[in-house]
Write a structure and sequence with these properties.
Strand content: 5-15%
Structural class: alpha+beta
CATH topology of the largest domain: Butyryl-CoA Dehydrogenase, subunit A, domain 3
Number of domains: 3
CATH architecture of the largest domain: Up-down Bundle
Distance between the termini: 28 Å
Helix content: 40-55%
Shape: globular
Number of helices: 11
Radius of gyration: 21 Å
Strand order of the largest sheet: 2-3-7-6
Number of strands: 9
Order of helices and strands: HHHHHHEEEEEEEHEEHHHH
CATH superfamily of the largest domain: Butyryl-CoA Dehydrogenase, subunit A, domain 3
């Protein structure tokens, strides 16, 4: 398949770009940060996103969604990267929708997906048990209790955890930590007794949370998919999440590159525009070529998600590792080429650098995905 967008996907991209630049520029994130907003995002903005259909892009039409596919959603995520928009789009409309769609029963899908589409339900995926991404290490034990289960343990880096109405939790129901078998997924209401949620504001000013389970009781109907068989759908959703994070990182890289080139056309030093210096032109040209390569990698991975490609896992790790590298290069170059002002909070470049560092770490950083890519190739 050609690495280009079709007409409808291009229209969605342009619509998202116009909407986000007008209603959710970087200044909005600065305002949320400075005011220590208790939610960490604009509820009104999220409702507008839902009205535009973004919350239903990945939802099957049978449940009221658009079923527009990952290439389409990837364009929205890329534009989110350009404006650093804070919203539950990733945690809910991508991770939550995907996992419920893959593992949920008809009753669970019918109850949850329409609520997500309407913007009434925010979900959060709770899978990390420590500072390293190791999805087979759950950090939460689930033992039989009456007709349901009792959950005990702790999760970290739960994106949008403190504002979620429902948590999707991976827990160990059998086997030993590190085993892929024996992991189950549970839907847990945020108000359940024994559940403690501590908000954590990350370096990028985006929401995260530590979630503690102290003998949390859930019914058998809270299980998302078969018991002990939660790792396979979880791995699929992590692949989905990583590709969309790569799309967001691509948006970040493009935005800081364009801002930096514009600055090089305006800033004078020693009587000449800094953009006229050949050494800086070389650095800009190198970054441009890296971004163009990243664009191809991202759209190929998004297409692989929609097509169910046999090379999907390879392409996922290639995209996350490569675009993470490019975003790091782009933000570093942006700070350096802006000179001293690039280090100040007054300039927005620092916001992009901070978000790029956090997004690159979520669900495995460059080294994690380089290692997975090599392992899948037999090394």
């Amino acid at each position: 398949m050609a690495l280009v967008l079709n007409e409808e996907q291009q229209m969605l991209k342009e619509s998202a770009k116009g909407f986000l630049q007008e209603t959710a520029p970087v200044e909005a994130l600065r305002k949320l940060r400075d005011e220590r907003d208790p939610m960490g995002y604009s509820r009104e903005l999220w409702e507008q996103m839902a009205e535009m259909g973004w919350s239903g892009i990945l939802v099957d039409e049978a449940y009221g969604g658009l079923a527009f596919g990952h290439v389409g959603m990837g364009q929205v995520m890329e534009e989110n990267g350009r404006t650093l928009t804070a919203s539950p789009l990733f945690s809910t409309a991508i991770l939550g929708v995907s996992l419920i769609s893959l593992a949920g029963s008809d009753a669970q899908k019918s109850a949850l997906l329409p609520a997500i589409i309407e913007g009434k339900l925010v979900t959060a995926l709770a899978i990390e048990s420590g500072s390293r991404h190791r999805p087979a290490y759950t950090g939460v034990q689930a033992s039989s209790s009456g007709e349901g289960y009792r959950l005990s343990g702790e999760k970290q880096f739960v994106i949008d955890g403190h504002v979620a109405g429902k948590l999707i939790v991976s827990a160990r129901t059998s086997g030993a930590e590190g085993d892929q078998d024996g992991i189950s997924l549970f839907l847990v209401d945020a108000g359940t007794a024994g559940l403690e949620i501590e908000r954590v504001i990350m370096a990028d000013s985006i929401n995260s949370a530590i979630v503690r389970f102290k003998d949390v009781e859930v019914g058998a109907d809270a299980c998302l998919g078969p018991v002990d068989q939660g790792f396979a759908p979880l791995q699929q959703v992590l692949d989905i999440g990583n590709v969309h994070l790569a799309a967001e990182l691509l948006g970040i890289a493009q935005e800081v590159f364009e801002r930096t080139v514009q600055y090089m056309k305006e800033r004078r030093q020693y009587g000449a525009l800094i953009g006229s210096y050949q050494g800086l032109q070389h650095r800009a040209a190198h970054l441009f070529s890296e971004i163009e390569l990243a664009k191809s990698v991202v759209i190929k991975a998004l297409q692989a998600l929609d097509e169910g490609s046999d090379d999907l896992r390879l392409l996922v790790s290639l995209a996350k590792a490569k675009v993470g590298e490019v975003a790091t290069l782009a933000t570093n170059e942006a700070v350096q080429l802006h000179g001293g002002i690039g280090m100040t909070d007054e300039l927005e470049i620092g916001f992009f650098m901070k978000r790029a560092r956090v997004a690159e770490q979520v669900f495995g950083d460059q080294r994690f995905h380089q290692g997975r890519f090599a392992a899948l190739q037999g090394y």
